[in-house]
Write a structure and sequence with these properties.
With 272 residues, this protein is α/β, with parallel strands linked by helices. The protein has 11 helices and 8 strands. α2 packs across α10, α4 packs parallel to α5 and α5 packs parallel to α6.
Length: 272
Amino acid sequence: MAGGFVKSTHIDGKVFIVTGGAAGVGAGTVRALLTGNARHVAFLDVAEREGSALELELINKFGALRAKFIKCDVSNDEQLTAAYEQVLDKYRRLDGVINNAAVLNSDEKSFQRMIEVNFTATVNSTMKALDIMATDKGGHGGVIVNISSLLALSLSSHLPVYAATKTAVLQYSTAMGGEEYYSKSQVRVLTVCLGPTDTAILHRSNLENFNKDSSQLTSRVPVRQRVESAVNGIIDVINRAESGATWIIENDKPAYNFTENIAEAFQILSKR
C-alpha cells in the first residue's frame, strides 16, 4: 500500500466492524472511525448497558445511520455470524474489522473463556471478514486489525494463558497478512501490540482477581497509557501499515513499526 497518512483512502466512506466496542479502546476506536468520516461502524459487545449508551451517544452526534450496537458474544459462532450478516444485509459491503474483544482472568477455571474470546474468536472473525472483503471472493479489499499485547513479545510466568492467546494472535495475523494471502485478497491483516492501557481490564477490581495483594500486579504494569493514545495509534496503523506488519503502541507514544524485529526473531527461532 502507499505510505503516508491518507485518512480518506482507508476510513472515509468505509464500513467497519469493531469487536469489544462498548467501552475502553474499542469504544474509542469506534468514535475515532466515525470522526474520520466512516460511513458506518457496527460495534459488537456482550455489555448491553454500555453498548446501548454508546449507541445513543453516537446517534446524537453523528446521525442514526452511522453507528449500530449489536449485542454479541464473539465466541459464539451463531451470534458472530448473525452480526456480520446484519451489517452486510444493511450496507452490502464491509471494508474493515478491528478485532479488539478480549478477556483477562487468572482463575484457572476460566482459562477456556480466554482462549475462546482472545484467540478462537479472533480467528473466526478474521475468516468471516476475509470471506466478505477478499477481492478473489468478490469483495473490495480492506483491512483487518487484530489486537495483541506486549505480553506476546516476552517470556514470563505472568498471566501465561492470556499471554499465550495474544502470542497466538500475533503469529496467526502475521501469517495471514503475508504476501501469499494479500496478493489474492487485497485485505491487509495487521497486528497491534498494546502496552498496558488504562481500561477496565486493569482497574483495581480486576487486579484483585489475579493476586491477593493486587499491588504485586500493579508493580508489573507501572505505566498505563491513556486510551486516547492507544486509539490514535490504531487509526495511524490503519492508515499506514503494510499487510503482515506488527506495530506497537505503548507509554503514550506514537505507534511504531516492529515488523523487522518480529521477522528477525522468527529467523533466529527457526534455525536448527
